[in-house]
Specification:
Structural class: alpha+beta
Number of helices: 4
Number of domains: 1
Strand order of the largest sheet: 1-6-7-10
CATH class: Mainly Beta
Strand content: 35-45%
Mean pLDDT: 87
Radius of gyration: 22 Å
CATH topology: Immunoglobulin-like
Shape: globular
Length: 257
């Protein structure tokens, strides 16, 4: 009798271990966003712009000090003719900056420029102006649960669209966490500049029309060697271009995991 009781107890214990192991394995299979920012600032900058290093330093400080803020650095290529080709720049970033200006109607494209939540722009080196613009932002109306497994990037979006908004674009942003560049020529010749949260790629995952919806894409399409950070932006957009950002999430992950 005692032996049978012990056997039953042992079997129950082993089953419990199997269940717990399964739960742990399932949990370990996904890496989940550690932060859901409430504001986003994009710095349009260039290694060939002598006015940009103070803004680059401010972007780094904001990224490290403001827990509710996602700071993205968007190097542009339109100053490359000045004698130094920006090693991090992308024409996609330049086009995004121009699209913002076209939508606002002010045609104001310059470096260093910070765009806050896809709306207001300020000189990126003027800290007081930047912080004032951040203080004027409206609360996000969309939440993002961002997870990555060995195979899949998954963003579960929930919330509401602002009044009169039809749809929003769900963007996946691939980020280089840090980069240090020694500049040999141009306006910043002889300088070593440190960057954080450099946007490497910005890719739409789909369109969101409100409510709860899940967006997925293969992780294999997004991996860039050495990078370990990504984000998702929920951004209003129409025929005039990108507009207000209404949701965001950011996640650190191990490339190749």
């Amino acid at each position: 009798m005692v032996g049978a009781t012990r056997r039953r107890a042992g079997t129950a214990f082993r089953k419990s271990l199997i269940v717990i192991s399964g739960i742990l394995a399932l949990t370990a299979a996904w890496e989940r966003a550690q932060a859901e920012p409430q504001k986003v600032v994009e710095l349009f900058t260039s290694q060939g712009c002598s006015s940009c290093p103070p803004a680059d330093r401010l972007a780094e400080r904001l990224a490290r000090e403001e827990s509710d803020l996602l700071t993205l650095v968007m190097p542009v290529d339109y100053w490359d003719y000045l004698g130094w080709k920006d090693t991090l720049a992308s024409p996609v970033n330049s086009q995004r900056q121009r699209a913002y200006a076209a939508r606002r109607g002010d045609r104001s494209v310059y470096t260093p420029q910070m765009v806050v939540n896809g709306n207001e722009h300020v000189v990126g080196s003027r800290e007081n102006d930047v912080r004032a613009a951040l203080a004027r932002t409206d609360p996000f109306t969309a939440t993002v649960d961002l997870k990555i497994s060995d195979m899949v990037v998954q963003a579960r979006v929930n919330g509401t669209l602002p009044e009169k908004a039809g749809m929003a674009t769900v963007y996946f942003v691939h980020i280089k966490e840090e980069a240090t560049v020694e500049i040999d020529q141009g306006e910043n010749a002889g300088r070593k500049i440190h960057y954080v949260n450099v946007v490497r790629n910005l890719q739409p995952m789909g369109m969101w029309s409100g409510g709860a919806e899940t967006f997925r894409m293969p992780k294999s399409k997004l991996m860039l060697k050495g990078d370990a950070r990504c984000a998702v932006l929920i951004q209003l957009e129409d025929q005039d271009g990108p507009g207000t950002i209404i949701g965001a999430a950011v996640l650190d992950w191990k490339s190749g995991s």
